[in-house]
Amino acid sequence: MAELAAQAATHSRDYRIDFLRGVALVMIFINHIPGTVWENFTSRNFGFSDGAEGFVLMSGMATGLAYGPVFLRAANWRQAFRPWRRAFTLWWVHVLVVALIVALFLATQHDPAVAKMAVKRNIAPALEDTFGFGLPLATLGHQFAYADILPLYVVLMLWAPALLALAVRWPRALMAGSLVLWFGVGLIRYTMPTWPLSNGWFFNPFSWQVLFVAGMLTGIAIRQGRRWLPIRTWALRVSWAFLILAALWVQVGVVASYGGHTLWLLHEYAHFPSVFTSFEKSYVFAPRLLHILALAYALSALPLLKTVANSPKVAGIVLLGRHSLPVFATSTVLAYGAQVAKAMNPPSFWLDTALLAGGLLILFAVAWWRDGQKRAAQLKSARPV
């Protein structure tokens, strides 16, 4: 719940958001190819949260930056519902990604390892009855593991007009209500239903909305040239202390053992709800939520981050973050292709490295191509008639 640009000019682009979103995309791609040595170097190995939490938070920021000004100056109904166009784009991209995954597994399921993976990833039912699962897949009623985050964004963008309207009028009330909803959903463990199989959504939008709302309020504040949360020395010290504790917890067995036992005692004898004592990702329980918020707040106070984000040396990462949707969609398909390749071949460090390196090169190419398309469109629209 911290923005990444204090006193930023309302018309300028903050490259820190694009840079961090690009970093998150790279880590998500690596994590979506499990079993490689390289996943040991992603952020989830140094704290409670991972790239998904950061990406949702920054997506909320981007939403506040892109659509917030319209609501700040009293939007008409057409302007107010612009996020729904984005939701539609997210939907058809998700459907395309799912269709490509189904085609990939239909072509390779003869391999026993791939068939076993299809069961684990919740793909097997769609392979057995492709026509029958067409509607559930298209309506987000059936979801595949590692390809289930875009449905979350679709729902969040459908909610965005109402959230933005509340954000510009009653920001603190919205944040309080968002936290209450997050706590209540986690407390009763409400799950978004799926069909025809009752698996439930892995990314529960009623829980994950808390990160989206925090990011949205941050983005709107950036547009207004202010911070949503001011920098306080004590708050920074608490944030860094928590981040260090989380890193030690994940990396040092003794710390994890004592920490886990302490949380168990709080749950069993002090009757703390699991919302505060568990690390469940579906509901983004408190340790994960506090970790990503502390990380965002701490990073927002680092002047070095702006210097790094503006450096030409990281322009490629910034480009990934700027064109996050085509990059993420492509990375999801590539990650599944890499998973299939790993399943069909003996374990190999060099194969893993080649798959990751080749995939990243493709992602950079997609971002570069998409950036060229946008620049060409802008030049065409700027030409005098």
Automatic annotation (TrEMBL):
The chain crosses the membrane at residues 19-35, 55-75, 87-107, 144-166, 173-190, 202-222, 234-258, 285-305, 317-337, 349-369. Pfam families: OpgC_C. Keywords: Membrane, Transmembrane, Transmembrane helix. The keyword Nucleus does not apply. The keyword Cytoplasm does not apply. This is OpgC protein. It comes from Cypionkella aquatica.
